[in-house]
Fold:
Amino acid sequence: MTKNEMVQIMAILTAAYPHFYDKQTETDKMATLRLWYRHFEYIDYSIMLQAVDAIVARNKFSPTIAEIYEKLDVVLGIDSITEADAWSCVLKAISSGTQDFQHTFELLPPIVRDSIGSAEKLKEWAGLSEPILEMVISSEFYRAFRRERERRTKLMELPQGRRFYLQKQQGYVLNSKQNSLKHFGELRELAESSGNTA
Structure:
């Protein structure tokens, strides 16, 4: 986001919460702008606007930086996927019938990719029987998924960790131009086109 776009975001907040911002001096406004820009300069303007619009629609009081971060987590779908949904993504990916496991791996949500580790592991799992997948690999994946979610939770408490995961998820959202449900659809189409159904 550019500084001018941050000024636009602050103008929205000023218009939505005039009683909060009309008490600020010009020096206070500049300090607020610099602080907010330092926290959110790496966020795409359209994503930031969605978060701010969602807050303005619900909050009676001007948001804090922490509240904006929380709403960005929601807008970007950070860790909103359940264990069962994550495992479903894995099953669709390995049953897709594709030989391009790298591409299929890249279609998975970031937390699922990080829980698996690599496209090679996905390829390895595709060669296993269904009982092995369901009895052994699924429990292995669930443990890895929980560890990854825990690790992310701890790292997100640090400003650099939060920035890393927000950027990673933002790239996933912006590059796909749709949320992970579209990727479920792509994997399903891939499976159906190869004659396999998940």
Q: What stands out?
A: The chain is about 75% helix and 0% strand. The longest helix spans residues 130-156. The mean pLDDT is 84.
